[in-house]
Amino acid sequence: MDTPKRPDLFSPDSIFINGKVITVDDGFSIARAIAVKSGVIVAVGATDEIRGLSGRRTRTVDLKGATVLPGINDSHCHMSDWALSRPPLSLDVRFPVVRSIGDITKMVAEKARVSKPGDWIVGDGWDEGYLEECLADARRKPGKTDLDMAAPANPVFLQEYSGHRALVNSLALSLAGVTRDTPDPVGGRIGRTEEGEPSGLLFERASAVVRSVMPSWSYAQRKQALVSAMAELSSLGITSFTDAGTDREKWACYNDVYDESFRDGRWTCRVNMLLMLGGLESMKGAFRYVGARTNFGNEWLKVGGVKLVADGIPPLKTALMWQPYVDGTYGLLVTEGKTLDEQENSLREAIRLAHANRMQVGIHSCGERTIDIITDEYMKCIAADRWDARHYVIHSDFARPETIDKVADFGRRTGCNLAFNVQSGIKWTISDLMETVVGAERAAYHWPLRTMLDAGVCVANSSDAPVVYPDWRPGIQGAVLRESKATGRPSGPAQCITVPEALRTYTVNGAWLDHKEHVKGSIQPGKAADFCIIDGDILAMDPHKIIDLRVLMTVAGGNTVYDAGAL
Ligand SMILES: [Zn+2]
């Protein structure tokens, strides 16, 4: 299925004319029209040229000057989890859907009206920093009393956007047996009112006390959620994504949804799975019995490789650094072992094991020291046993200039490049916060995209949803401007990249990471007909407005998978 199909040019299924087609080919050329046949782009060129190919059954879409981009590739996210954290299973209590505690109360009341007594009402995404009442009075916190009248007969559990706090109602507390006498659990805190009653806010591990009495989603619900999530991704112009952290259940779920929904057109994204195989021993077990390699599957559902997690995250000061955080700590590795040396060795062994089994490796790795360890082991593995692995660093927050140069040089010498996977959309949301974590100078360097691109390494951008909403527009705007979402303050303007460069990080570079740059990632004859149509010229506009661009239509494999009805 990998070889680009080249059906004849005449009588394409559809043509798209009078647009500005940003092909993202090697020369970043601009065209006006595209012809599509059997799911493949058969011609790209001027409007007259493409119109001349049409036959009796050809559908013509007049783009009326709209801009066309290659389909967006969200190269690192957790869509299985994101699918469960949004409608229809979870209430979306994110800003700007809700702007006040009052909005949350109303939304919960509406849900309660259509729920059976006793059914759990769950939601995700509230953020005190965007709730009117809390903004007006810093002492005002959301609490159980905001939910009790709205849903007296239904337990309510609303996760905060960060995942570190939850808001629940009185019924949820009583089902979990939480009273004024319940002590705080280890690693958590039960929020309390001045009178000592549980307030309805649960911090860190305390939310697990309530979670433990919540029913888990049924398999049917999980499958339904995936289909609905894909429809939303299509509405965002996304045609490919990598679900990084696919365990046994998630792989099975993707497999079943694919079987059930591909034929009727509800499977609308090219899904690349990075498998979570557990610790070293269970990885060995998996490789002993399963011979799946990188690229097992087809163009719509495939195994990309193996996901490992090496360290924590910089905002929590848990990513392993050479230089200390402002509080003097250095972070840590989360791999197996009792000492740092043992942990480093088990991490290196896991990389060697996956490499030997012809699995591409993507490793969650944010701290400069962790990134040094894994890139070093990647290069050693490739030098000793060369194959086109394209191992990569996930997050790559504090990759040092020396390390980036070393990786780029290795790629030039061996022809085997490594890559850095980054999240410019997260940078946008946490750039102010990071100054309090690593100081102003290092916060400015955080996610050094300019240094990476100048060195000549592959950089692929992504959302890491559900950490942030899987929207590429803040990612591109963030990569180009590096301004804080909250304050607009620039953070490390020396690391800004251009719009064309940012577009590459969301399209061809992601395709390369998928080992699929020959079949997707740019608008060129012979490649899959994956593209999205937007209502503004992203190359010419004020980059501050990129987040406001509207997606008008998305085409994946030649099918219109989203249509806003504007063309
Ligand atoms: Zn992630």
What would your notes on this structure say?
This protein is α/β, with parallel strands linked by helices and 567 residues long. The chain folds into three domains: 1-71 and 521-567, Urease, subunit C, domain 1; 90-211, Diaminopimelate Epimerase, Chain A, domain 1, CATH 3.10.310.70; 219-520, Metal-dependent hydrolases (TIM Barrel, Alpha-Beta Barrel), CATH 3.20.20. 33% of the residues lie in helices and 21% in strands. The protein contains 18 helices and 24 strands. A hairpin with a 2-residue loop joins strand 23 (551-556) and strand 24 (559-563). Helix 10 packs parallel to helix 11 (340-356) and helix 14 (424-445) runs parallel beside helix 16. The chain binds zinc ion.
Indicate the topology.
Blueprint: E1 14-17, E2 20-22, E3 30-31, E4 33-37, E5 40-45, H1 47-51, E6 59-62, E7 67-70, E8 72-77, H2 79-84, E9 91-92, H3 101-113, E10 121-126, H4 132-136, H5 145-148, E11 156-160, E12 165-168, H6 170-175, E13 188-192, E14 198-204, H7 207-211, H8 219-235, E15 238-246, H9 248-261, E16 270-275, H10 280-289, E17 301-309, H11 340-356, E18 360-365, H12 368-384, E19 392-395, H13 401-414, E20 419-422, H14 424-445, H15 449-455, E21 458-461, H16 472-481, H17 499-505, H18 508-513, E22 531-534, E23 551-556, E24 559-563
Parallel strand pairs: 1-6, 2-7, 8-15, 9-10, 10-11, 15-16, 16-17, 17-18, 18-19, 19-20, 20-21
Antiparallel strand pairs: 1-4, 2-3, 4-5, 7-22, 11-12, 12-14, 13-14, 22-23, 23-24
Bound molecules: zinc ion.
